[in-house]
Design a protein that fits this description.
Blueprint (H helix, E strand, L loop, with lengths): L9 H5 L1 H33 L4 H21 L29 H5 L1 H15 L7 H4 L2 H11 L2 H17 L4 H21 L25 E5 L7 H5 L1 H33 L4 H21 L17 E5 L7 H5 L1 H4 L1 H28 L4 H21 L32
Antiparallel strand pairs: 1-2
Length: about 425
Amino acid sequence: MVTDDLRRSRLTVFFRLLLALPHIVWIVLWTIVVIPAAIATWFATLVTGRPPAGLHGFLSAYIRYGAHLAAYLSLAANPYPGFTGEPGYPVDVELPEPAPQPRWQTAFRLVLALPALLVTAAVGSGGGGGGGGRGGGADADWGFLLSGGGILAVCAFLGWFAALALGRMPNGLRDLGAYGIGYSAQAYAYLLLVTDRYPNANPDAAGPRWSLPPHAIDVEVDDGGRRSRLTVFFRLLLALPHFVWLTLWSVAAFLAAVANWIYTLVRGRSAAPLHRFLAAYVRYSAHVTAFATLVANRFPGFTGQPGYAVDIAIGPADRQSRWVTLFRTILVVPALLVSGGLSAALAVIAFLGWFAALATGRMPDGLRRLGVIAVRYLAQTSAYWLIVTDDYPYASPSLRADEPIEPAAELHGEAAA
């Protein structure tokens, strides 16, 4: 649940880490108590089939407080959070009441939660209130956020500079950070037996409708999630010719981008032949990325033609600002940082998806959708850098502004991870 208005106090933004020190001390102390509470909940749920109400409420407050602190530290929210994990913060999580849980899932909860924890490390802060379940303490919980790992840390780093300059948090960064916080809360709620619903990586499945303004670079999806186990097993080997061709094409694309940069500085728009060549390169790169990471199943062509299962729609050459073009290499740096975080998420998606697709013949819906979002952002970044468009990459965790590409999956079943 996100009710944040994006406005930020420059003074509190500048001293954000210093102001958060009491909370960091408090989360450490709270985590020490959560460890035995999580163990007691595990034993009680094994015996009775449901978590005790008192322990459930205590762990729920801990998870909610962790989400509030992550939102404050990452600048996804502005007000100073309370210390008790009470609902009502601008970036909040809704947690269920105690309910029966299957004993066999409870017995293997730590093992079952490992894939979700890997996704959490990539998209969240590496925490969100659950380190007690791992016995790793608060340092393990908040290490990614404080030391610079995970997409949420990238959003916090870039948002700090943006909020100081503008007095506002960029909408896309706030939404992407809030998504990471929400997924982290899901993962640790599952780990700590607050719920038996498996975390769902599909941002459109639950929570707010994320912002997604029109952009010259968009994604089109025609993939149902089914995977051939044979091609999944040999996916990297099958992708080798594409890796070689993409490397060779990248050299030509670099030279074309330099020529396009000069032309656009003079004429105020890309040269039509160079635009077509670079647009095909951006599409082809997205096709290869989607295929190699199991976000798509079909073997892609080598020419970057439209029509692939996860495709990139690119508009015709349009006018571009000469000032933006002149400083394009500097302006693209923040987008490259976000792209790096999403690339790490794609690596996790490919790793987990490989095992899941081999076992079930399908790519988990949540992982597939998150992968499509990452592919889109990488394509937007490439198109911006290569002077295909001067629309800046938009870090939205949504696939569609009005409606998802398919009905959102439930939190059970195929929505795993």
